[in-house]
Predict the 3D structure of the following.
Amino acid sequence: MDTYMAEADSAEFPAHTWDKIGFYVYRLVDPRDGATFYVGKGYGNRVFQHARGVSLDDDNLSEASQKLERIHAIMTDGQKVRYVVHRHGLAEGEAFHVEAALIDAYEGLTNLQLGHGTDEHGPMSVAEIVRLHGLPDFPNPPQHRLVLIKIPKLPRGNRYDDIFRLVRYCWRISKARAEAADYVIAVHLGRTVGAFIAEQWLPATAENFKEDIEGTDNKGIPYADGSEAYRLGFHGRRAPAEIWDLYVGAHGKRIGYEKFLKAQNAIGYVSPEINW
């Protein structure tokens, strides 16, 4: 049962209380159907700003757009977003973990990023937990320049074609660093699940990735500065057998890069010279 539910305009936290309240974790709720559509962590009056439709997420345009569309639709219907503060008085690290647990618990959120620590401690079956901690370690340092990409789900049966489709499209990534990499490694829940050669990195537009966009609402997402740059995807192929064996093996290899695993960003870069 929710212990605290309020409308967007009903309150704010006075500035002199912010340090006592600390970081907190909240949900935004659609009053029309009672559905939770966003989970976030905040400090100060972030929850109230979000609930009123103030954009605070220019670093993640797609997520912000989906959330704001929902908020504006609620307002157009003459209603106000409701919010629930689940925990307050938290250190920032604690707030990350509470936020991640709520993201795991609620389906259909406008959150696009996985919760903090999901790759290490997210929802897994007993078999997945045992397998993860019994896998061989990923080479550290690796023998090649690699782009690591966390995919949010794993296709049933671990089919190569499905893993390739998920990892190749579409990412906010440095084109220069991506093109400098020898291989792309797909990662799911802390283990590697695929190794690929990216032959060409391209803007993630309908023209370049028609088969990936058909049936979705993703038409390519421009960067916040208004430039013509887009999120990227790549055309490529499966890595040779010896590379697959080195970085994936028969059942995957356990990633040990803590900074990469804990980051909400899906992209990581490692090489023989530069490691996490």
